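Student: Send me a single protein entry containing the residue sequence and its fold in token form, directly below this note:

Tutor:
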Amino acid sequence: MPRRIWGKVAGCRYGRQAMTAGVLLAVASVMLLSVISALQQGAAPLPPVAAPVSEAVPLPEAAATANLPEPVNTGSIQEAATAPTIPEAAVAEDNSAANEAIQALWRGGITHAFGWQLHPLYGDWRYHNGVDIGGGEGQIVPALLSGEVVDVYTDKTYGLTVAVRSGKYTVYYSSLASAAVQKNAMLKPGTPIGSMGICGGEPEPHLHLAVKTNDGQKTVNPQELFPDIPARALQQN
């Protein structure tokens, strides 16, 4: 029975076309399989897929800067290379010399106090705007504070005077025999200002030391600014 059916199909015009199409389809399938097989055998292996890059974890600030060098200040290097080096011993020696000069002045003690005083020569009461510190004629008078010389002049009452602005005060060094500084000079403690002398109304060698506010409106007792000045009894003639 199947042979009869197949024979009828083969004898039919459409049957022969169907057989031809089937054969061609089978051949095409075989060729396609061959091509796919050849491509799979000759194809290069695909490169491995890179793992996703995770975000960088920030280091702690201390760890991030632990090995970094300190920033260099070129200005400081240049200044260090050009500035002279002052030995510590020299600084200590300067301070010691300044202290010794000031202590030598203090050893003279106060011979005439501040304020209304009985004048030792004239025997009347007069206002004394400073203190007199005794000493020897020609004794060096040191600067007691750092400051700027604002004037060098001769006062009609207190004689040759050097005025030094020190902070909010102006210190007057008077009754000098000579002055060793000029106006606008910058002083530091212990710098020689001049030598001790006398003035007309006070014939004994001494330093007349007075202090005023910079506006000149208020006179200050020098012992308030220099409490180390030793006081001693007034000399009576």
Notes: Confidence is low (pLDDT under 50) at residues 49-60, 62-69, 71-93, 233-237. The first helix runs from residue 2 to 11.
